[in-house]
Design brief:
The N and C termini lie far apart (about 55 Å). A hairpin with a 6-residue loop joins strand 1 (about 20-25) and strand 2 (about 30-35). The protein is an alpha+beta fold. The longest helix is centred in the N-terminal third of the chain and has 13 residues, at about 1-15. The model has no long low-confidence stretch (mean pLDDT about 85). It has a three-stranded antiparallel beta sheet. It has four helices and three strands, in the order αββαβαα.
Length: about 80
């Protein structure tokens, strides 16, 4: 029992940090559809998101809309 708990703790410590930004791709996996924050529930449901750096998210927001649920544009400090 103690060994399982220790293994579980080690696994949680080694788990990579979730992505801060996500880019959602279209059905053909080439076109970008939207940008999300890493915690966005809508991104999790789409299944078509990939992790992105801050700069990639900023660049993508120049061409595609921000998610209306998580508002990554606000989190990134972009004001229109």
């Amino acid at each position: 029992m103690e060994q399982r708990q220790a293994e579980r703790r080690r696994g949680e410590e080694r788990r990579p940090q979730p992505a801060q930004w996500l880019i959602q791709y279209g059905l053909n996996r080439n076109n970008i559809d939207a940008v999300h924050t890493g915690e966005c529930w809508a991104a999790a449901r789409s299944g078509r998101c990939r992790p992105a750096t801050r700069q990639q998210a900023l660049n993508a927001l120049r061409h595609v809309p921000a998610c209306v649920h998580c508002r990554p544009d606000t989190a990134l400090g972009i004001l229109e």
